[in-house]
Amino acid sequence: MAEITEAEIKDLAKKLVEEVPPDKVDQFEFRGAQFDHGLAFVQFPEGLGGLGLESRKLQTVVDAELRGAGVPYHDLAINPIGIGMGAPVVLTYASDEQKERLLRPMFTGEEIWCQLFSEPGAGSDVAGLSSRAVLDGDEWIVNGQKVWTTLAHVSKWGMLVARTDPDQPKHKGMTYFLLDMESPGVEVRPLHQITGEAEFNEVFFNDVRIPNDRVFGDVGAGWSAAVTTLMNERVALGGGVPKKGVGPIRDLMQVWEEKKETLDPVTRSVFRDKVSRFWMEAEALRLTNWRAREASKSGNPGPEGSVGKLMSAEMNQRIYETCVEIAGAEGLLYEAGYDRKRPEGLRTEGDLTRYSFLRSRANTIEGGTSEIMRNILGERVLGLPGDVRVDKDVSWADVPRN
Ligand SMILES: Cc1cc2nc3c(=O)[nH]c(=O)nc-3n(C[C@H](O)[C@H](O)[C@H](O)COP(=O)(O)OP(=O)(O)OC[C@H]3O[C@@H](n4cnc5c(N)ncnc54)[C@H](O)[C@@H]3O)c2cc1C
Question: What is the CATH number of domain 112-222?
Answer without folding.
Answer: 2.40.110.10
